[in-house]
Structures are given as structure tokens and as C-alpha cells.
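Bug #77: duplicate submission created two jobs. Keeping one. Sequence:
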Amino acid sequence: MKYNTQRDKLKMPEYGRGIQDMIACAVALPEKQERQRCAETIFRIMASMQPQLREQPDYKHRIWDHIAYISDYQLDIDYPFEINHLGDEAQKPEPLKYPMKDIRQRQYGYLLEESLRQLAEMPEGAERDTMLALTANQMKQSLFIWNRDAMDDMKVASDISRYTNGNVSLDLATFRFAPVQTLPRQDSSTGGKKKKRK
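Kept job's structure:
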């Protein structure tokens, strides 16, 4: 028995190994007329396998491009269209570089720290008070998610003052935090599922 891992890599997995094997057989046929007839049959099968391509005006051209690509451009027939080489299109794109940002405290993340930087530059007033309330509540929520034992109103107020270089302070005597959104703890032994009572 031969496993797929021992076979040639699929050029276009969406068509499957059967189509790739048919095209390989067509390439090996000695007569051009036979190759032509076989390729036209393969074209019809591929068109029925990918009905969504029919919505595109150039779908026939694209399928013939796929046939040529799967054959490694070795199929010697009279193509009804000028064949486009798909080698560059089929290659995987380079992975995107992840933008690395300097984060002073991981539990807050870049966006919260950016909010604190903006808060430090805002003039006093209703807009700054609103942003301070939103930022403080999110900081407390982040502390809760990161480590429930580290969640402390004094720490939030202290961090706000430190991040803003003392320009902004949170008055704990008058400020009321919004309720923290809690999620139920999962018991690792039961996978978070409740045990059935017998």
C-alpha cells in the first residue's frame, strides 16, 4: 500500500490527486491527438469540480492555466488560450513581520499604555475625565484577567499616576469602578464541566 506522503506533492490540492494523475497520464500519451482529447475531458471534469469558477468571465482560461500548471507545463497540446505561468502565484507569501512594541507591563498591553500616554497630554475637563474612567476600568479588568490576586484599586491608581508622570491622578475617594466582568473558573480535573450527580 502506498501512502499519500510517499507520493508526489499535490500541485493544486483543491482538484485532488485523481486530476493530477489524469494529467500525468495525458502528458505520457504518445499521440498529440490523444493528448488533446484527454485534456479536453479533464477540462470538463475540472470545470464541474469548481462550479464557483463559472461565475468569473475568464473561468475557462483559468482552468486551462491550472491544467498547464499541474502538468509542470509539460502537456504538449493546442491550448485554446495563451497560457499564463502560475509559478509565482502558487508560492506561499512571506510571513508578515509582527510589529514589536515596547510594553512596560504586559498585563496592560500596548493599547492601554498608549491610552495612558494620550491621557497624560490631554487638558483637564470632561473629555479627560471620561477617558480616565474608561482607562481605569479597563486596567482593573486587565489585572483581573491576568491575575485575580493582583487586582487592586490602589495599584490601578498608582499605575495611572506613574504612567502619566503625575499629570493625572485617580481619586479613589470619589471614583467608583465598574463591576469586573467575571468568568467562571475551570476545574482542570474536569475540563470545566460539572460533574453529574448520581
